[in-house]
Design brief:
Layout (H helix, E strand, L loop, with lengths): L1 H34 L16 H13 L2 H5 L6 E6 L3 E5 L15 H10 L13 H4 L4 H13 L11 E2 L1 H8 L27 H7 L4 H4 L30 H10 L15 H4 L4 H13 L2
Antiparallel strand pairs: 1-2, 2-3
């Protein structure tokens, strides 16, 4: 009897392991196909100015749009996350230094990367938030390109971006936004300009930086970072919806909420939002409070 139980248990475990191996094989092949997909995308023409005003605007946008959070303060690339099971997530050197962008990297290449999340060969870039950046106006996109094209070169050979077994599985099910090109609207055209004023409309434009963590409806939910904490609802139905404009500004400038909670910048990047002006944060708060 005992031998029979062991035999049945062994067969059962063997079947489970076999199914798991087959499932992982399918996931691995599917993810490799998605990673190697070529996107039929032509970069929308854009006029880039390299005057002092454009460069100053670009520098500010690089800070407020979280470019430095991923690519480093010098834009020379960095290791974002490293784990044996998940993989090694790195951002690349986007300067013209050794290990960075080639000398012939064009404005069209920049547009493909920022607006569409693909490289010059039209293959998807890892973790490049094109679904957010595609919402930028032509003026803002051009300013970012101008500034990034002019930053001092950094010599830093990039480490290879690798996916571990768990990284493949979580990416397959959308629990890691590995390939934003897949959910970017590639048909959207540049908005020529957004009126910079204290209004919900301008706040909506600014809110695109929030959607990567708080979701398209900004209602929060599971963290996009594996093992991360539950993400807060920042609309009228969440805590920020109950705050005054000044309380909202103070929280996003100092990292301390009206309830006395100290926000962890690794979870809520108030180190980025502190660069926003009071008028910009008021506009953002107006928009968030308008979401029911």
């Amino acid at each position: 009897m005992f031998k029979k139980i062991l035999r049945i248990t062994g067969i059962t475990l063997g079947v489970i392991v076999g199914i798991a191996i087959l499932a992982y094989a399918f996931i691995y092949v599917d993810m490799r196909l998605r990673i190697s997909k070529t996107y039929d995308i032509n970069a929308e023409p854009i006029q880039v100015k390299y005057d002092s005003a454009s460069l100053a605007m670009g520098q500010r946008l690089v800070n407020t749009r979280a470019c430095v959070e991923c690519h480093g303060k010098d834009l020379g690339g960095t290791v974002l996350y490293e784990d044996a099971l998940l993989g090694t997530f790195v951002s690349r050197n986007i300067t013209k230094g050794r290990g960075g962008l080639p000398d012939d990297f064009t404005v069209s290449d920049w547009v493909r990367a920022l607006k569409h999340g693909v490289n010059r060969n039209r293959k998807p870039l890892f973790l490049m938030p094109s679904h957010e950046l595609s919402q930028l106006t032509e003026t803002d996109m051009a300013a970012i390109i101008a500034y990034c094209s002019q930053v001092p070169p950094v010599d830093r050979e990039p480490r290879e971006f690798t996916l571990g077994p768990l990284g493949y599985v979580l990416s397959e099910f959308g629990l890691i936004p590995l390939l934003p090109a897949e959910f970017t609207d590639h048909q959207i055209h540049f908005a020529k300009e957004v009126k910079r004023e204290i209004s919900a409309a301008y706040g909506q434009y600014l809110s695109t930086i929030c959607i990567n963590c708080h979701g398209p409806n900004l209602k929060g939910g599971e963290s996009p970072v594996p093992g991360g904490k539950y993400v807060a609802d920042i609309t009228s139905t969440g805590n920020p919806g109950k705050w005054s404009h000044q309380e909202f500004i103070t929280a996003l400038h100092t990292g301390v909420t009206p309830e006395g909670k100290h926000l962890n910048p690794a979870e809520m990047p108030w180190t980025i939002t502190k660069s926003f002006t009071e008028d910009e944060l008021t506009a953002l708060h107006l928009y968030l409070k308008s979401i029911k």
